[in-house]
Amino acid sequence: MVIAGEARLNARIQGRGMTSSRTRARMVDRLRKQGITDEKVLEVIANTPRHIFVDDALESRSYDDMALPIGHNQTISQPYIVAKMTEILLENGHLSKVLEIGTGCGYQTAILAPLVDKIYTVERIAPLVKKAKDNLWDLKLKNVSYLHSDGGWGWPEQAPFDGIIVAAAPEEVPETLLQQMAVGGVMLIPVGSKNQQQLYKITRTEKGYENEILEAVSFVPFLSGRD
Q1: Hey, which of 67, 156, 179, 185 would disulfide with 75, CB 3.0 to 4.6 Å?
Q2: What is the value of pTM for the model shown?
Q3: Which residues are catalytic?
């Protein structure tokens, strides 16, 4: 029974038809044309089965370049923005400790996990924490710690972080997250209202913080509390 279960899991991860490795390869080719150049990031994306992170009814669309619903009024981010944020976060070299705000179904976590030493990921919606844990366990990604909490609080017990990546858009950057950055650390965060958001790259220096606006984006709003 255990062997049969593992075989079914492996077949699901491998995919077929519109979820096959060939479809993933076409997605990676598209990302290259969109300007993603980090080969390590592209390799991880090529090897990560995005279709297992969405509902069965959406599997055939899982490699399209679009955000998809994952329940609870949340989405899995489009492949381009996942690749772009990951590439920028890692552009200055290897990171030891990364804080992720907004675990969701765990796809962004799965892309980061092979590329950093340790991820601390925070999600405010309890069923999504379980979904992410199940997905990442199936992929044998063991360098992830999970916290069911308000993302605005960060994870102060584990700070400071070399990198912070935020998957929801507040109208202003939370001061608590700024305080949890290591000197030299980078945070990528969408900021703005529902219809007008910009992706910010924030670098902490010895003297303060440097802000750079990268591009217009569209994320779910950053909500407080815990469900």
Answers
A1: 67
A2: 0.92
A3: 77
Cβ atoms of 190 and 140 closer than 8 Å? no
* CA pair distance 84, 29, nearest whole angstrom: 14
Query: Which pLDDT value is given to residue 153?
Result: 96
Spatial distance between the Cα atoms of 220 and 27, rounded to a whole number of angstroms: 23
3 state SS of 56: helix
Q: Give the Cα separation of 148 and 146 in Å (integer).
A: 7
Q: For residue range 134-151, list pLDDT tens digits in order.
A: 999 999 999 999 999 999
DSSP letters spanning 25-86 = HHHHHHHHHTT---HHHHHHHHHS-GGGGS-GGGGGGTTSSS-EEEETTEEEPPHHHHHHHH
